[in-house]
Write a structure and sequence with these properties.
48% helix, alpha/beta, single chain, 244 residues
């Protein structure tokens, strides 16, 4: 059975740096450590308010990240310009509100598809693959499945609801994620997942076969404060691939 790849989000290394307005800790260095520990990609989110990742980080990481660089961003025009200038391997379009602590919910494809399509076309012309961050909603997967694969080849399932509940509720949310993954894969889409995943809850998600990649950040960086980043990445990988 194929194993989901791990892409480590190093945004919150940059959050620590920006809290003091200094040049450390460097998310570029964190990305190198994460890859050395077994991550196969790096994810960063450059926001309009620049609360963590900066343009310099995107430029330098594009040069130094050995695996896949996944740039999360909104559809704002300045973000499109940054992506086209730096040319990450993939852009993941996400909703963004100034007052949110972190990304809240997936894109609403029923109302935003025209702008998403316009941005994706421009990114594709620049040689950049586009993924959409969406909730595990069959209607949203259906809408995406109708789009041109050369422009929109895949999507990331928002796992936040799954991570916030337990017991039977969590089982239900896990099934929603599984159904969205299978629906997307059946339509020929690449399937990724992420948001709120930790060592305690990642196993059932990583076991869903159509999911090719997990994007995990906050829990890894938080654990790294106590045990170091290399060890924290190793721990999440152990829980993604139990028994190996």
């Amino acid at each position: 059975m194929p194993r989901a790849r791990l892409s480590v989000n190093v945004d919150h290394v940059a959050t620590l740096r920006q809290a003091r307005g200094v040049d450390y800790p460097d998310p570029v260095e964190a990305a190198a450590i994460a890859e050395a520990a077994g991550a196969e990609g790096i994810t960063i989110h450059i926001r309009v308010d620049r609360r963590h990742i900066q343009e310099r980080d995107v430029r330098v990481m594009r040069e130094r990240v050995a695996g896949k660089l996944n740039l999360e961003m909104s559809t704002a025009e300045e973000m499109v310009d940054i992506a086209l200038e730096t040319r990450p391997h993939q852009v993941t379009l996400v909703p963004e509100r100034a007052e949110e602590v972190t990304t809240e919910g997936g894109l609403d494809l029923t109302t935003q598809m025209d702008r998403i399509r316009e941005v994706a076309q421009r990114l594709a012309a620049g040689g950049i693959a586009t993924s959409l961050f969406i909730d595990p909603d069959p209607e949203h997967v259906r809408i995406l499945a109708a789009e041109d694969r050369s422009m929109l080849p895949g999507f990331e399932i928002n796992t936040d609801a799954y991570t916030r509940v337990s017991g039977a509720e969590q089982d239900g949310e896990l099934e929603r994620v599984r159904e969205a993954a299978l629906q997307g894969a059946d339509a020929g889409l690449l399937v990724y997942a992420g948001h709120g995943l930790t060592t305690a809850n990642v196993g059932p998600i990583s076991a869903i076969e159509p999911i090719e990649e997990l994007n995990i950040g906050h829990s890894i960086v938080s654990r790294a404060v106590l045990v170091g980043l290399h060890a924290a990445v190793g721990e999440i990988l152990e829980h993604m691939y139990p028994g190996t």
